[in-house]
Each structure stands twice: as C-alpha cells, then as structure tokens.
Amino acid sequence: MSVITTTDPDALAPPSVDRPSRGREVKNAVATVLMWVAFAIAVIPLVWVLWTVVTKGYDLLLQPGWWTHSQQGITIRHQGGGAYHAIIGTLLQALVCGAISVPIGIMTAVYLVEYGRGRFARLVSFMVDILTGVPSIVAALFVYAVWVTTFGFDRVGFAVSLALVLLMIPVIVRSTEEMLKLVPNELREASYALGVPTWKTIMRIVLPTAFTGIVTGVLLGLARVMGETAPLLILGPYAKSINTNLFSGFQAALPTMIYQDRTESLAPAVARTWAAALTLIIVVLVLNLAGRLVARRFRVRG
Amino acid sequence: MSVTGHSELDVVAPNDGPGSTGALGDRIFRGLAAGSGLVVVLLIAGVAVFLVGQAVPALAKDKANFLTDRVWSLGNLDAPSFGIPDLLWVTVISSVIALLLAVPVAVGVALFLTQYAPRRLATPFAYLVDLLAAVPSIIYGLWGYAVLRPVVDPVQNFLSDTLGFVPLFKDTGVGGTIFLASIVLGIMILPIVTAISREVFAQTPQTHKEGAYALGATRWEMIRTAVLPFGRAGVISAAMLGLGRALGETIAVAIILSQVAGFSFSIFNGGQTFASKIALSAAEFDSPTKTGAFIAAGLVLFILTFAVNAAARVVIERRKAFVE
Hints:
Oligomer: heterodimer
Radius of gyration of chain B: 27 Å
CATH superfamily of the largest domain in chain B: MetI-like
Number of strands of chain B: 2
CATH topology of the largest domain in chain B: MetI-like fold
Helix content of chain A: over 70%
C-alpha cells in the first residue's frame, strides 16, 4: 500500500539527491586535500629528522672502532674512539630499570584487571595516569631528593635507573592491562571450572596468553627510557671511559654523549655528536620495531 | 569406574580442599598484585612529599616573592632570592603555542587515518606517525637548533616585521626563540594527540555515519556532523595530555632556547622553562638551599602537569560515562 496518492508519474520518481550542490562539493574536496596535507605535515619532520641524523652520522658508525672503543683520552680536537662506553651504559641502565619496572608494572596491571574493584583500584588507575604524565625532570628531581640529598649517596648509574623506573612503570601497566583485557574470559572460566585457584589461573593461563603483548609493552617501554636525557643530566654525569659498575663512578650514556659536545664547532666533535645521535636512534628504533613485530604476531594468533 | 579413565583415588588425591594451599597462594598473589598497585600510589605520594619537603626550607629562606618576583640569584646561601614568573611564562606560552600548532594537524591526521586513508595503508601510516614519538627528545633538540632554525628564521622575521607592533611578536634578535621551541614541541606532542584522537574517531558508531550519509551528506559533512561531535571530548583530553607533555619537556627545549638576561613578552625571545632551567642547572646542586630552590621550581611543574593530566582524565571519564 502506498501513501503516494497523486497520479502524476513525475512525483513517483525519487527526489533529486544525486549530486550535492557545487559549494558543498568544493568544501568536501578542500577538506579531503587538507587531511592529506595534515598527514604530510606529520610525516615530513619524521623523514627530515631521520635524514639529517643518518646523513650526518653514518660515517663514524662504519668505522669498526665505534662499536668497540670508548672516548678515553680523546679530546674534541681529535678523531677516533667510539661509543661503546655510552652504549653499554645506556643498555645497563635500561636493563636494571626494566628488571625493577617489569614485575611491578605487570603485577599492577594484573591487580587492575583481575582483582581491582572499588576505591583502591580506581586510585591506583588514577595514579598510573598521573605517573604517565610526570615529566622526566620531575622524576629525576625526586630520585635526587631521595638518593643524593636524603641518603647522601653519589650520583651513579643505578640512580638513573631508579628515575627511569618511574617513567617505565606506567608504560608497562597500560600495555599489559590492554593485553590482559583481550584474554577471553572463557579461558579463565574453563580454568576455574577445573578447580584451579585464581593465582595459578593468572600465572599459567592468563599471563602466558598475553605474553607476546606484554613483551611488546616492555620493548616499547625500554625504547622510551633509553632516549631520556633529563634524568641523566641530574643523576648521571658523563664519563669518557667504560664503566660497567652501576653503583660507583660516573657512567656514560648515549644521550649524555650527544649532549656533551653539542655546542662544539670543531669537526671531530660535531661528527661524534651526530654519530652518537644516530646510534641512539638505531637502538631505540630497533627496540620499537621489534616490539611492533611481536605485537603483529600476537594479533594474528588472537 | 570413572568416565575420564582415572580411578576414584586420582580424583580425590589432588584435591587441596578449601582453605589450603590454593587459598594461601591466592592470598599471597593477590597481596603481591595489590602491593604493586600500592607501590605506584606511594611513588606519586613520595614525589609530592619529597619535593615539598625539600622545597619548603629553601622557600622559607627566599627573600623574594616566589610567585611574583623576577629574580633567580642563589649566590648568597643565607639570603637567596628566587621567583618563578619568568619560568612560568616561558613554560606556559611555549606549550600553548605548541598545542595551537599541533592540535589542528593532529585532528586532521586522525581524521585522515580513520576516515580517508585507504584501509590497507591506514595501519602502516599510523605507525609512521607513532614513530615520531619514538625519536628521543634530545635528537629533536639537536635537529631543531641545527637544521630547523635556519628554516624558521625567515618566517620569524616576516612575522616580527609585519606584526612587530604587538609585544607578543616583537623582534629581540635572539637565536633560539620560544617560537622555534614551540614548533619542535608541537612536533613532539603530535603523535600522542593523534593517537588518542584517532582512537575516539574510530569509535564513532557506524549508525551515526550511515545516518549522515543517508541524509545526503558529503564525506566532510558526515565528519562534521557525526565524527567530530562524537570525538570532541576525546580530542579535548588528548590536547590536555599533549599539553602535559609539552609543559614537562626538558632537553629539546634546553638545547633550543637561548638564555637571555632581559624579559619580554615576545615569543621571539629566548628564556628558560621550569624543566630546562632545572636541567641546565644540575651542576649547581651543591647545597640544600640551592637544590631546594630548583626543587621548588620542579614542584610547581609537577603541580602544573598533575592538574592538566587530572583534568584530562576527568574529561575522558565523563565521556566514558556518557557513551556507555
């Protein structure tokens, strides 16, 4: 039954909706162009930064000494030496930071997802958000206030690691949380139905299922803290020689190696600065890419 | 006989019974998990307590008004005088300009990734934008000062030539300006603002979008009437999180900004933010009073970022309540 009562055949044809008016079409086209432009604006600095660092820094990286030697005894006027001391410092500090942050971060996420109900859980979740926003310089000042001012210890690599812990925990918590939420509830219920206690269910079923996702979070977290400079300026003065002891003496790191000679205009120092920058980018991007690749594999399985 | 093929004994034997090891394990595990959560809470509390605890003695000795006096002289340990208005101004104005530059682009990129990009390319494109966040800030600083500065200089000169009568755009002849720092900050916060905006735009209900199309909307009209209103709260909180990042950014700003003696309201002036001032002064941390002065500045930065992040969180929570 039709509500159209007229017999005029034209009225039965659909109203003309085929084309929007000219002005609307132009607006639509302009908007489309602007979106592409916005994306281009976002990608240009990335390419530009990477291009700058690669072209200015690749020279030294090709010399074998770069990966095996320190800067001991080498002044800004001299070429030579390497970044081994800084690479080892950065890796050690990040490793120790990870060893502290990962268990705390994962367990906090477990608490929030598996146990957390009520006021305390909301408080923890809120504090994780706040911790995400704590500037690295504030984290460094806090550790300085505890480690140096209160306890009177020296500024050493371990103190840097502690400051980095504050920056890494929220990254781990948030990524682990996301992964735990993706674990199907049926798996947990199946485990409970077999009489397995909650903690064993989490340890044996939930965490292993989310494992690759958690690894991704850890790798991205490590990538983030390795590039942090502010804590190093406050807590980890630069040293030109190799120091693998996190508890005594100054320890070099890649960001401070970059920072060290950044205002020099002598060619060897400039070259070293950019080479150290490229080394840092390589380390960070490799971790980042590794994290994404692991995440990719997880997605296929899920 | 058992259906599982096991004897009756097997079924009974491994049973711990209620209240035995299983429950104990549960309690311990739960305690560990809650304890880790407590560590996070204590860390934030610790930051607040230690910063306040070490800032107060220095503030008590401060001969100047901490909030209003434009001085920073810690030479005399018994009568230091330090105030933060300069730092506050440079910190806030550089972050706000960074936000003004970054948010429109970030919203555009987020719309591009969710509504315009070919579906197969959307993920790799999004990854490219995320990579911007992976580049360490010291490298942005190096690049900004060495490479971007010569490019921005003409723009700056043009602006100060044409708008120089406004104090905000007065030429001061400084090399590393607030304006340059803002551009670099804008690039640095672009990925976070994009990521969060992208997430909320992607959640726009399909029915809203189809409804707009059914009414004859063009793609842009669909975005304006369906996607943007739905994502507004998300974009606001994303912008605030970006602002929090920009306020606390240290090393890129420290490298770029020229240190200047005089103060002016011009964004083509140099200066120091809270974070860069603290970082560049690390060598001066040799007495509790001096350290305390810098910790007081750090405390203000902490309060600022805390407030901004908490506000962002409130906006997100309210939106969640609204959507669910």
